[in-house]
Every structure is written in C-alpha cells, then in structure tokens.
Design a protein that fits this description.
By secondary structure, the chain is α/β, with parallel strands linked by helices. It has twelve helices and 13 strands. The strands form two sheets. An eight-stranded mixed sheet has the order 1-2-4-3-5-6-7-8, with helices on both faces. Strands 11-10-9-12-13 form a five-stranded parallel sheet, sandwiched between helices.
C-alpha cells in the first residue's frame, strides 16, 4: 500500500480473483479517528477486500493542514463543534469517489452524521456500517441514515428499527470479522494453575454486575487470578474502584497486539457482563483464541454464538454467572469442548476472507 501521509489516503490494489467479477472500479472507505493495529479492529477488512476490488482508504489525520481545511468546510456547512480532521477526510472521500465513480463506504456511520445530514438526497452508491445500538443515537441523527443506499449492521436484533430509517430491504447483516490466523489458540495449552479470568474492555460493560460477581468469586474461588484489560481513564467507572483493593486482580493497559493475544491464550475463561451490545472485538477475538466467554444475553450476543456455541446468562443474574464460572472450573473437559466450539465458530463465520466476500456482494448490489 502506498500512503499519502498528509491526506491519510492509502491504496490496496486488487489481486486477480476468478470467482467474482463486477462493475465496481473500487471501494472508497473513510474510517474514523483512532484506529487499530494490523490484526485488530474493523479496518482489517480492507486487506482481504482487496482480493476482489481496488480499495482506497481515507483516514483522518491530525495535522495543521487537515485542521485548517476541515475548519473552513465546517464553517461553510455550519457543522458547529466537530472534529475538523474528520471533516477534511470527508472532502477527500467525496473527491476520490467522483474521480473513480466508485462505491463509497463509511466504516462507522456514527462518526459521520453531520456529513450525512448535509446531503440533500439519498446516495444510491453510498454504504455505511452501523456499530452502535439504536438507543445511543439521537432521532435527528437516525433520520440521516436515509441518505445511505445501503447499510451493514453487525447484529440482527435492531434490524426492523433501523429499516425505519435506512429503508426496507436495504440493511444487510454481516458479522464483525476477526483475524483468525493471528488470534488463534496457543500451540501449547495454558498452565492449569492458577486459573486466570480475563476481563477486557469498557464499552457498554455492566461494571456494576462485574463488581458484584467478582467480589463473590473471590470468596468462593480464592485460587482464581484476574487480568483486567481496562484503560486507565475508564477505571473510575462506578463499580470498578471497589475492586482495586484485591491483590488477585491485575490491571493492564496499552498492550500490544501480541500481548493482548497472550492474555486470551493464557486465560481460562473470559468474564464479560454487558449492558448492551452490537458487535464486540473482545468477544470475536476470544472466540478465535478458543477462550470460552461468559456474558449476558443482550444485544447482538446471540449472533456471535451466545446460547448456541457457548452458554450465556440473563443480564444482572449474578447467581447464574457465578454458577457458570463454577461449572467451567469443575468440568475442565467440558470447558475445553466449549473452547473448541468457539474456535470453530470463528473459523466458519468470522474469518476476514469470508467477511470481505460478504461485503463485496453488498457492493455488487449497489453497483448494479
């Protein structure tokens, strides 16, 4: 990939692929600020999508040029308070699409509500991926979804409600993918003792339930050790501060991708009580590593094997979650069977080459 660093533009050149041909010249992506490493996050899709078509990636850049240009555009369009680098990236997104007559894709629709609001009509060759549950966006922002030609959603529960805005038959369910080659079970089994419990992430987590469950588990299963992978800024959330006193809990932040994978591989179970969920990086990466997830029956959890590949519990049912932890501890063979099933689910449903092909088919429909 050649990168124009000032503008945040990168190209992934198409490889010959005999199975799928289309009218698509290329797919232009604009991605949100932040981002991920080469093996984590939704942007990993670009590498495998390049098997089917040329891909142009436009990523917001925090530099003086982007801020000044973005500020000028924002004043012209009356965006108000908004990230100027993102506004600048949307300009180059539009320019790239105009030049190549391509399909455009917003990697995270929620980052571009002002951009969609500025459009006067629906763009039939514009697609966007919805990441957040419906309740997290305001009605004025949901209405802008009608400007999309199609939308991709990572979970099925909210389909009908999103269709109210996007349009009937214009939403497609595609799993959030995972790099199943990188996130894979360890070549050698993790040490049997002491069993380690992983707790990862902060978005939409039910920290109040987590605090109650962990406090009781420390009394009932004192041999357990815990690895909390939570950013320092998120540790002030209600429920977490009460857990600082326990020496069994080890806090981590800023891990590399290899260190993160090692935590998955060295853990016995992944404790993940959720308040709501669309898709979840921590879940798909755990599944790929063969790590059983103990989570709550909310949002899109069932779309990612919850209740079929691995057992789940009702939200705020502390007794059920503790009971499930104790089952895994007392039945290691069963735990290993569940872990193997998790890995199969990831290989058969979540691997990026499969996910890229499903995206490409949506883009083919838009190009027809």
């Amino acid at each position: 990939m050649q990168t124009l660093s000032l503008l945040g533009i990168g190209r992934f050149n198409r490889m010959q692929h005999s199975m799928l041909e289309s009218q698509i010249q290329c797919v232009v992506f604009v991605v949100p600020l932040g981002g991920s490493g080469p093996h984590t996050g939704h942007e990993t899709l670009f590498r495998d999508l390049a098997l089917f078509t040329d891909v142009i990636e436009i990523r917001p850049k925090r530099n003086l040029f982007s801020r000044l240009l973005g500020k000028s555009i924002g004043l012209l369009k009356r965006y108000g308070h908004r990230d100027q680098s993102c506004t600048c990236a949307e300009l180059f997104f539009d320019l790239a699409r105009r030049k190549s007559n391509s399909i455009g894709h917003l990697s995270s629709v929620e980052a571009h509500f002002p951009y969609l609001h500025s459009k006067s009509r629906r763009d039939p060759r514009l697609c966007g991926t919805i990441h957040f549950p419906l309740h997290m966006s305001q009605e004025a922002n949901r209405v802008t979804l009608q400007r999309l030609g199609a939308a991709i959603c990572f979970w099925t529960r909210d389909f009908e409600r999103f269709e109210k805005y996007v349009g009937k038959g214009r939403i497609h369910f595609i799993h959030h993918g995972v790099d199943a080659e990188f996130f894979a079970p360890a070549p050698e089994p993790a040490p049997a003792a002491p069993p380690r419990v992983l707790v990862a992430g902060q978005f939409l987590r039910n920290f109040e339930m987590l605090q109650r469950v962990v406090r009781r588990l420390i009394e009932l299963q004192p041999q357990l050790e815990y690895d909390f992978l939570i950013p320092e800024w998120a540790r002030k959330r209600e429920g977490l501060s009460e857990l600082f006193q326990f020496p069994q809990i080890h806090w981590h932040a800023g891990l590399s991708e290899v260190q993160l994978r090692d935590r998955y591989r060295q853990s016995y179970i992944h404790l993940l009580p959720m308040k709501d969920s669309g898709a979840n990086n921590a879940i798909v990466e755990s599944l790929a590593c063969g790590l059983p997830v103990i989570t709550t029956d909310v949002g899109g959890i069932r779309d990612y094997g919850g209740g079929s590949t691995y057992p789940i519990v009702a939200n705020d049912d502390d007794d059920a979650m503790i009971g499930l932890v104790e089952q895994y501890l007392s039945r290691p063979d069963w735990r290993n069977e569940i872990g193997a099933s998790c890995r199969r689910f990831a290989e058969e449903n979540l691997a990026w080459p499969l996910i890229a092909q499903r995206h490409f088919r949506v883009f083919q429909e838009l190009a027809a």
